[in-house]
Amino acid sequence: MPSLKDLKIRIESVKSTRKITKAMQMVAAAKLRRAQEAAEAARPYADRMEAVLGNLAAGAKNSASAPLLLRGTGNDQTHLLIIATSERGLCGGFNTNIVKLARGHIQKLLAAGKTVKIITVGKKGREQLRRDFGSLMVDHVDLSAVKRVGYENASGVAEDVLSRFAQGEFDVATLFYSAFENVITQRPTAQQIIPAVVEEGAETDALYDYEPEEDAILADLLPRSVATQVFTALLENAASEQGARMSAMDNATRNAGDMIDDLTIQYNRTRQAAITNELIEIISGAEAL
Amino acid sequence: MADTMQFDLVSPERSLHSAQVTRVQLHGEEGEMTVMPQHAATLTLLRPGFMTVHEGGEVHDYVVTGGFAEIGPEGLTVLAEQATLRADVTTDWMDRVINAAEKAALDAPDDNRISLNQRVNHARFLAEQLGIKSDI
């Protein structure tokens, strides 16, 4: 049976933990709003880009002169996985879910005899994957100094990936991130970015004049589209991370509250027992006289 | 005939300008052009240059570093790599743009290099027009 003093100390410590988790939840809520706004603001560009690319690519996909980024290298022996996670922990299952999806993917590819290369973005995913797949990692992008993800960060990642592709280091690139649905739900997602996936049936209602020719526009647009997709993924990730942290911290705050209630009841019972004990001692002492 | 059209200028990070405009002048890859309402549907790449937006009586001057413009039945959408108001351009910003263009030209495979080198020249020319002395 813990003493009254022990219980009191315990209650105080849980209370201060609750304060911290509550503060983290509120910070995450504020950051989430900003991250959501950023994701919202970037959407028109990404949508437009996808629509234009869809129109262009639908026509060019089967022509032999189409850029490699669209056509692919013709085989799928080497896969590059870009796994985007967060730089900080304490965000529930956010990182684990992305890593779990990626891990399944890697194992499937390895079992099929493919070569796998991994680029990690964000410290947490790297830590989780290093033990099993450390030898497959080719690069790591550190965003810990970045407060708000900007387009430069994404285009930096994209440039690296594109130059690797140009040097023939891989055939297929897939991007792993967590899509933000709402505060409760973040969906881990795998998205193939090279060769570009073109939505079928994206028929244009207007016939466009192209300046310069379609192929030249495609060659310019495809790398940019890779950067845009990486950027979208990073933004979604940022929002998801904050969302996950918010609900994780909300849970933690609630658990701490429950714990405090339990401990307080225990504390009061112990106190009552001690008082009763003392009374019994006094009464029996008086009776003995 | 409609005398205005929808104009949207968006960068990867956010939407910069969205309004009904009367005409827009921009630098396409194959030359300068003015887009007015009812323009033929066109898709053009942009080279670094000015973009002048006439919105009613107001005139907005932008500097665009590249990207593309889509002219459709509903209006004009410019997807700019980077864009900023002409008045807000700084030497620093321009230097970064030129640097990025040069780096892209250096890294590019041979068949792309010519057009990318042109882009560097356009960026340099743009800096000159802006009266910015670039030290690179």
Automatic annotation (TrEMBL), chain A:
The keyword Ribonucleoprotein does not apply. Pfam families: ATP-synt. Keywords: ATP synthesis, Cell membrane, CF(1), Hydrogen ion transport, Ion transport, Membrane, Transport. GO terms for cellular component: plasma membrane; proton-transporting ATP synthase complex. Coiled coil: none annotated. GO terms for biological process: proton motive force-driven plasma membrane ATP synthesis. It comes from the Bacteria. The keyword Transport applies. It is found in: Cell membrane; Membrane. It is a peripheral membrane protein. GO terms for molecular function: ATP binding; proton-transporting ATP synthase activity, rotational mechanism. Its main location: membrane. Gene3D superfamilies: 3.40.1380.10, ATP synthase, gamma subunit, helix hairpin domain. Belongs to the ATPase gamma chain family. F-type ATPases have 2 components, CF(1) - the catalytic core - and CF(0) - the membrane proton channel. CF(1) has five subunits: alpha(3), beta(3), gamma(1), delta(1), epsilon(1). CF(0) has three main subunits: a, b and c. Produces ATP from ADP in the presence of a proton gradient across the membrane. The gamma chain is believed to be important in regulating ATPase activity and the flow of protons through the CF(0) complex. HAMAP family: ATP_synth_gamma_bact. This is ATP synthase gamma chain.
UniProtKB/TrEMBL annotation, chain B:
The keyword Transport applies. It is a peripheral membrane protein. It comes from the Bacteria. Keywords: ATP synthesis, Cell membrane, CF(1), Hydrogen ion transport, Ion transport, Membrane, Transport. It holds the Pfam family ATP-synt_DE_N. It is found in: Cell membrane; Endomembrane system. GO terms for molecular function: ATP binding; proton-transporting ATP synthase activity, rotational mechanism. InterPro entries: ATP_synth_F1_dsu/esu, ATP_synth_F1_dsu/esu_N, ATPsynth_dsu/esu_N. Residues 5-83 form the ATP synthase F1 complex delta/epsilon subunit N-terminal domain. GO terms for cellular component: endomembrane system; plasma membrane; proton-transporting ATP synthase complex. Belongs to the ATPase epsilon chain family. F-type ATPases have 2 components, CF(1) - the catalytic core - and CF(0) - the membrane proton channel. CF(1) has five subunits: alpha(3), beta(3), gamma(1), delta(1), epsilon(1). CF(0) has three main subunits: a, b and c. HAMAP family: ATP_synth_epsil_bac. Produces ATP from ADP in the presence of a proton gradient across the membrane. This is ATP synthase epsilon chain. The lineage of its organism: Bacteria, Pseudomonadati, Pseudomonadota, Alphaproteobacteria, Rhodobacterales.
